[in-house]
DNA sequence: TATGAATGAGGGTTCATTCAT
DNA sequence: TATGAATGAACCCTCATTCAT
């Protein structure tokens, strides 16, 4: 009772949780700064500069993310999560399943999924638990969307998810070199041309086998 | 006359060029090693490692190429030159102009033009003389091929050279990370899908403006 | 009041400055080692060796002084500051203004101002703020001392500050080559002979124009 | 007989000695270029650049001078030789022995004896035969000139050759930093002031002992 | 816990010197 | 003999990571 009536009690209770709130806020700032830096400078971006952009000390970054891989994973995970959400929204809201795929692709490009997912390749051990959750979620919704489009006769038969996802990643990557963000101007054009190529009926026979994301992973040593 | 009859004259003339022959051999080995390294690790590949792969001392690399830019230019120039040759062959030998474009695109991918031309972006001053020669040569033949395909009603009207070249570069880039050369397995599939999207009649309206290579150059700060 | 009564407040305040105390100690050791090395080997002395003498890692040196210029400036600034103090003391304590000049010259030589001020020539952009403060301070006190000596008829009329300062710098420089610190044995003799030449009445007509320190600066490209 | 009458015989004989003439010419060009470079950039001047200025291959420099020391010695020796000649001329032509000293000092400064003789300190083993010859020659003529001036009551009694030679070297050295050749503007003023201080009667008591060149040499480890 | 500071390892580049023609 | 080319060692500087407060 006394605490309930004493003025400032709530503030005190707050004070108990505040440090954790601060830590979470720091963590968010780090991930946000890291996303910007990785997109702009690639996966080798200086960690000190990421810390500086997040307005925290460099050692604090290491407390939250003991190595570069951990930070990369978290950045990619968060982007994957938002991308999966975009896919789910597109799937739910578009009546034409091929239009849903197109919408998803363009929205994913805006999320820089290209810049970031490709970071995964070769930069850390593949099977982090938390990342797998989002990867599977994304894989499943994209698979479902493609299957629906295929059944509707809107998507050519000879393509698999890896075809879509790798091309999406590549076409939305920034051009190499610092600050070449200008790829944005062209990405959506190229993605649209690619989607036109995916549309049924197929206009050509494709060489090789269709790829899954698992193929890509395995292909990486 | 006198030199022709004097014994050893030929040997002397030889002696003038022979040392250069050794140096040229070294130069070739450097360019070749650099091409591999740049494709695999990007334009920031350690020059010392390039020298090691070429089995020469590190300072020798600097004798031939005083800075990284010069080496990058030479690597890109040689690839551009071979790619232009491929384009000219395809243009000459294929009766269907769209088939010629397709053949060129796949051959260019095998030359790793994607990996290498994108190196240009932001990594050195744009207008080196020798590079420009090859760039113009390549630009002109590709423009000619696209124009022919367009006139034949085989290429959609709303695309320009930059659309083709940038997508070609992006789709044939190796995935980031060491040794991810396995993109080759998928590149030709993705390129074919993209070419299907380029084929007339257009299946969609494209967003934005068509890009030229000049646009890309200007977009880079 | 509140901080005074709160236990640990002083300790906390201390904690804010204590790390800086360690860093300052390192900084002092760097400047001291740099002074020795610059005097002994000139302004091109290896920075790694300076770090080694200061018993710190090489990168620590760069944390404190991002480039060679910054370190040079700090070394020279501190010596200029001590030299200006010596001049002010001599000016205040000696009744004969020419004796004050002589005392200043010998004390400045002991500060190695010769070795160090000459480092300025051509090794960094001339107008660093903090350095200018000390340079002006030194210039003004020496000008004042010379003017007083001139008015007292003790200093010949045809000399200016640059004549004194450049000769002081040159005569007190260490001889080139490692460890030739033994110039000290002779510097004071030579300086005294030079001062005898400065004394009024003039024993000869001087060639050229009298130099100011500004002349020297401008003379450097 | 037959060779005497055959046309071109003399030319042939010439041809035997011509290579040596070429070699000597090369040697002269190297020494000359080295003198310029050492004066301008100090004793660490790049040997490759010296070779380039002499318009010869770098390896040719090594054929003539197997190491930097040998080249330094030769440069200094030639300057010492010319300086000794200047001393001998001044001694022969000036009636006032102190005026002879003054003339010698200024001429020696123009020979850059300061820049070059100080190169000796610490940069090579002290007792090269050919160098000693010139050093002794120079020492003896300067000693003789000083003795004559002393006897004539024109030079103060408490100075020795080292006092003159070291101060001469120091005052005529270029200021540190590349290309600071502008010391010339002031050198002759400072030397004149120093000579005024050397003139009898002495205006002060000198600290320390008078130095000989031998003292300097021994002082160097 | 958060931080500024320290550090070692590695890459880029220059230069003295050696080698092969 | 004279030369261009090759080389390794040394230096400068950056950055990921650890330490001490």
Structure characterization notes:
- 4 copies of one chain form a homotetramer.
- By secondary structure, chain A is mainly alpha-helical.
- Chain A folds into 2 domains: 1-66, Tetracycline Repressor, domain 2; 68-221, Tetracycline Repressor, domain 2 (Orthogonal Bundle), CATH 1.10.357.
- Chain A has 11 helices and no strands.
- In chain A, helix 5 packs parallel to helix 8 and helix 7 crosses helix 9 (161-171).
- The longest helix of chain A has 33 residues, at 9-41.
- The radius of gyration of chain A is 21 Å and the shape is elongated.
- Chain A starts with a helix and ends with a helix.
- Chains A and B meet through helix 9, helix 10 and helix 11 of A and helix 9, helix 10 and helix 11 of B.
- Chain B binds a DNA duplex (21 and 21 nucleotides) through residues 15, 18-20, 22-23, 26, 46-49, 56-60, 62-63, 66-68.
